[in-house]
Design the sequence.
């Protein structure tokens, strides 16, 4: 599948990179088709590239690489709609915001993206009654310190 | 926009499949019960606004250098 991205140019990606968001994303209700573009192995970051809008790319991250204790309840509605169960566990990632100083980048732990990797459908859910916020620093000590030890 | 006045215990029916019941009114707080199909997403307004704002900011193109920064990050899974 050939996709067009302002950030990456025209690139060929596997067909199963495609993820369908039936509700779009909050703030982007029309954007329902994305490609999930992972980085190198061992790198927790990835990109979510809109297939309709080359300008729209989100940086996303595996939350568990930075917040080992991150946890929440999916709830029956999400499980049913995404057809998830014990035999079909979701893939979870969170959207990263990169400010002018990249060391201050934050991740939105309040609204994780839940993916059914078999059907390639996903929802960005909003957690209820949670300690998490829209902005958790990924590198509270900046880049110089050991990455991955951050969090809290 | 439609504005309706309701009392506790009364309902509002939207389309054929959404029912909002005024469960209780105590001072400034109104408790609602919402019955809707599961594909209808229901959020607290301020929470939804926060996610919209955060997504929009996250969508702002980051500086080119960020790709190199992210590329060098390796995190071993626990």
Sequence:
């Amino acid at each position: 599948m050939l996709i067009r991205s302002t950030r990456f140019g025209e690139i060929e990606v596997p067909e199963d990179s495609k993820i369908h968001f039936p509700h779009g994303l909050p703030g982007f209700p029309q954007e329902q088709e994305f490609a999930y573009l992972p980085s190198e192995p061992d790198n927790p970051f990835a990109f979510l590239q809109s297939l309709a809008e080359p300008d729209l790319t989100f940086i996303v991250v595996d939350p568990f690489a930075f917040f080992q204790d991150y946890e929440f309840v999916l709830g029956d509605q999400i499980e049913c709609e995404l057809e998830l169960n014990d035999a079909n566990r979701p893939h979870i990632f969170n959207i990263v915001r990169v400010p002018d100083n990249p060391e201050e980048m934050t991740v939105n732990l309040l609204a994780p993206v839940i993916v059914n990797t078999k059907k390639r459908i996903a929802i960005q859910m909003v957690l209820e009654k949670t300690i998490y916020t829209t902005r958790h620093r990924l590198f509270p000590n900046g880049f110089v310190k050991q990455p991955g030890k951050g969090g809290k | 926009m439609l504005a309706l006045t309701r009392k506790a215990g009364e309902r509002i029916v939207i389309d054929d499949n959404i029912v909002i019941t005024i469960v209780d009114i105590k001072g400034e707080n109104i408790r609602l019960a919402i019955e809707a199909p599961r594909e209808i997403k229901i959020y607290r307004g301020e929470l939804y606004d926060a996610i919209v704002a955060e997504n929009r900011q996250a969508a702002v193109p980051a500086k080119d250098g960020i790709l190199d920064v992210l590329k060098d990050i390796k995190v071993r899974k626990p």
Q: What stands out?
A: The longest helix of chain A spans residues 76-81. DSSP finds one helix and eleven strands in chain A. Chain A touches chain B through 42 residues (CB under 8 Å).
